[in-house]
Amino acid sequence: MHPLVIIFKTTIIKGVMVLKKILMKMLKTIGLLLLLFVVIGIAAVVNKPNEAEEKQKEVKELSNKKLDKLRSSCEAYIKRSVINKSTLDMSVFSAKRWQGNDGKFYATQEFSAKNKFGLEQKFRAVCIEDKDGKADYKVEEMIGN
Length: 145
Prior knowledge:
Distance between the termini: 108 Å
Shape: rod-shaped
Number of strands: 5
Structural class: alpha+beta
Number of helices: 2
Largest sheet: 5 strands, antiparallel
Strand content: 15-25%
Oligomer: single chain
Low-confidence stretches: none
Mean pLDDT: 90
């Protein structure tokens, strides 16, 4: 055989082998991507919340909205109740809100303000909203704190 034919055949064989390697790498990459998409799809289906979880999430969001509204109305009640409004100091850290086992919503807020004689006093507002949406507000003096 002629040397040029041998070189040509060798070059073609090498080219085919390189193409085969490239094709195999492409197939492996496509396979891995396909596997990745399958795993992501399965994870999405498995982690999808069911109806009970969705309902529980909605109830919690509604509860948080009601608690935020109760806390805001409690603060408004405090502001209306204080005699010397310029001396009002509401502690952000002493504000609490929760839903009780009885279904009622509770919010408390500690604050201080000066009375009509100029003496500073500490108070706690207790605000309660029942299941029907009826709210009750009380302010109690904190003695000894």
